Amino acid sequence: MQKIFRYPVPAHAHHNPLFSMGSLLMVLFVVQALTGSLMAFYYDPSPDGAYSSVDYMQFILPFGWLVRGVHHWAASAMVVIVVLHLLRTYLYGAYKKPRELTWLVGVVLLLITVSFGFTGYLLPWDQKGYWATQVGTEIAGSVPAIGSALRNLMRGGEDMGIATLTRFYSVHMLFLPGAFMVIVLGHLALMRRHGLAPALVRRGHGPEKTVPFYPTHLAIEAGIALVVIIGLVVAANLVPAPLDLRADPTDTTFVPRPDWYFLFYFQLLTYFPGGLEAIGTVAIPLFFFGSLVLLPFVDRRAERRPWRKPITSSAFVLYAVAVIVLTIRGSG
Ligand code: HEM
Prior knowledge:
- With 332 residues, this protein is mainly α.
- The chain has a two-stranded antiparallel ribbon.
- The longest helix has 33 residues.
- The model has no long low-confidence stretch (mean pLDDT 96).
- Protoporphyrin IX containing FE binds next to helix 3, helix 5, helix 6 and helix 9.
């Protein structure tokens, strides 16, 4: 036990809150598992019952609004924090040898995190969730050759209905959490094996000072987690989790809108109409995730300082600017 929890943490990581984002993600996952399990007591995963059960939790069940609100805000927080964690590991060159596999496992965790958002959005079976999922599954349908099989697999048939909701629910509350837990354990084992990336600029001579993870560094991580959890409760109080009108599959005038973190992608798709669709639905996402996967194998120099890596640093800035601009345009 001593060996597991009293391992040395480099002083630069102890003093930099960005190094606590990985642990914060795990805390947020636990928050999601707890609030999600509480909601599962009342949630009815059928097109007839889903909306009424969520409406009941939000407006009648004592503290239902709080549990649902924390789940809603923690989902957004996870997306923000996973991006911060990715940026930190990028900035410290933590994707380089010997941590290539830690980075790749991280890319899988990034996919799982956004999949939680995608599958959860449909569950209230309200207008916005229903129509955004129509578009999301249509996007899968536009993949050349395997598109319609993929779309039918997601929907459980040609159209959206009870099979879609059951599939999204079981993926959201069983498959993704199970995969997340197993894969995070692998991520942590790799992190322990290779240690954290060293400071970018070394001050002084000799080995860097360290602090024990337990209790010194853990105290900082627990403090950050506590502040974030209080923030989630305050957010749930100030801005309740949204619930649109009950889904109406006959209402073809509804303009589909995803959650904020998919807005950039919906906006991107508007630039590739008709025959160009596959560029937005397949080529650009493949290029984006492909570049994340290939990064450790393309940028192989030992240099880790971002200001000495103009090509990868400019690519990161370009991605960030593109996502921000598209999100702003998509929300207008
Ligand atoms: C939601 C999912 C994730 C969880 C729970 C998680 C958890 C962690 C934890 C606890 C650490 C050690 C402490 C720290 O650096 O914060 C870590 C390190 C690391 N993570 Fe993640 N992570 C996740 C996603 C990602 C993503 C998306 C990437 C990148 C694509 C990534 C890449 C890395 C790398 C390369 C390290 C080693 C850092 C170093 O040596 O300095 N992780 N992760």
